[in-house]
Design goal:
Blueprint (H helix, E strand, L loop, with lengths): L4 H54 L8 E6 L9 E6 L4 E6 L1 H24 L1 H11 L1 H15 L4 H12 L15 H50 L3 H32 L8 E4 H15 L5 E4 L6 E4 L1 H17 L7 E7 L5 E6 L7 H6 L19 H11 L3 E7 L3 E7 L2
Parallel strand pairs: 5-7
Antiparallel strand pairs: 1-2, 2-3, 4-6, 7-8, 8-10, 9-10
Length: 420
């Protein structure tokens, strides 16, 4: 039995429309329940308020525990309902009509609830529209899935896909030249583009790492040759070689640790251990440590006017800030000031700041400063691997934050880590 193509085309839309109606009705019912509970509470509060004000008016004060109260009708008719108050010895202190105010409060709350229901009914199209916009991506996915389900591939189309993939240019794209396969063609080309980008990044990373490791290895080899030739007899050459080899090994160890950190991060093996931390306290701790470690620069701390609490990995976030502080100390002249700060931006986002008066950077250097192994020309005379800022960016990215950098050559640099 054959199916009607038109029915197949509208089936997902009909299902999604039904779901949209259901969601809109559920939202409206939830609002109606909230209105009902709120109005009942208002009804009780209005009656209680009238009772309180009436006792103040007639008796002169209100004593909740020291009096007995009752609602009474001599004929049993609700229209003659009275509110009575007695002292603890049985003396009647007040007897006033209650039905009139009860009736008025009831009518007022009923009218309010009716107006709320009318407003709710009038807002149904708006609620339905919001639900439809929210479900639009799901509707599109359902329609695409239904379209793929109804698409009958012939053997020729399968062979066309197979031949195009087998004969594809590694540096190019795939073209099936078939309208029915346009969606698959775009998806495959997008995948190829991502694979090519990943391969280029990996190749660049390996080449840069090899280049950075080549220099210390060459230095170690050179001093090893010196030791072999003259180190046994020349004590000066021996001491110089041992010191140089030790320094290069330390540099290589630092480089390898940074490479491993980035490799673990890229592979998803570094998991953030988030907790609630006080940002002021973290920055004050980094400031005090910098003040003790670095005796060549005066440090200043600018605290926020409030306590700022965020959810973050304390260890990794501290590592990111320490990288910025170490760079500031490295590129700032002796006795020049370095400022650490914490606060909130104009749009109320928390930030941590490191500001120096060092050599600064050009705009081009700022645009590339977080790339792996990138080092500005002015910075090449200073010792470093070019990976520190890449690690800091990885950490900040995983916290959903970003950097704001202002730098001028010969004036200094201000870097802010802005968090969400």
């Amino acid at each position: 039995m054959s199916s009607n193509p038109m029915q197949n085309n509208v089936r997902p839309s009909k299902k999604m429309t039904s779901i949209t109606h259901h969601i809109a009705v559920q939202i409206s019912l939830a609002k109606a329940k909230v209105y009902l509970k709120t109005d009942l509470l208002l009804f009780i509060l209005l009656n209680a308020g009238w009772v309180y004000m009436k006792e103040l008016e007639v008796i002169g004060n209100f004593d909740f525990l020291g009096r007995n109260r009752s609602f009474y009708s001599e004929t049993g008719h609700i229209g003659e309902l009275c509110y009575r108050v007695f002292s603890t010895d049985g003396k009647m202190l007040m007897s006033v009509d209650f039905f009139t105010v009860f009736f008025r409060i009831t009518v007022f709350v009923a009218i309010l609830f009716a107006m709320q229901m009318i407003g709710l009914l009038l807002s149904l199209p708006v609620v339905f529209g919001k639900a439809r916009r929210t479900l639009r991506p799901i509707r599109e996915i359902a329609e695409k899935a239904d379209e793929l389900n109804r698409l009958a591939f012939s053997e020729d189309k399968f062979r066309l896909i197979e031949d195009a993939i087998e004969n594809a240019d590694p540096e190019g794209t795939i073209n099936f030249n078939d309208r029915d396969l346009l969606g698959i063609e775009q998806a495959v080309n997008h995948l190829i583009e991502r694979l090519q980008d990943s391969y280029r990044q990996q190749a660049r990373f390996v080449n840069d790492a090899s280049h950075e490791l080549r220099t210390p290895i060459a230095v170690i080899r050179g001093y090893a040759d010196m030791l072999e030739r003259w180190g046994r007899t020349d004590e000066k050459v021996l001491d110089e070689s041992i010191l140089a080899i030790s320094n290069e090994v330390e540099n290589m160890n630092r480089l390898v640790e940074q490479l491993l950190f980035l490799a673990r991060g890229d592979s998803g093996k570094t998991v953030l251990q988030k907790e609630n931390i006080l940002l002021n306290e973290l920055m004050k701790e980094i400031y005090e440590e910098s003040f003790m470690i670095d005796e060549e620069h005066p440090y200043k701390f600018r605290d926020a006017s409030e306590l700022i609490t965020i959810e973050a990995d304390r260890t990794l976030l501290k590592q990111a800030v320490r990288i910025l502080v170490d760079n500031a100390a490295k590129y700032t002249n002796k006795n020049d000031e370095i400022i650490l700060g914490v606060g909130r931006t104009d749009d109320d986002r928390p930030y941590m700041m490191v500001q120096d008066t060092g050599i600064g950077m050009t705009q081009n250097d700022v645009e590339h400063m977080f790339e792996r192994f990138y080092r500005a020309d002015e910075a090449r005379s200073f010792q470093g691997t070019g990976l520190g800022l890449s690690i800091a960016k990885w950490i900040v990215d995983r916290h959903g934050g970003h950097f704001e950098v202002v730098s001028r050559t010969e004036l200094g640099t201000r870097i802010m880590i802005v968090l969400s």
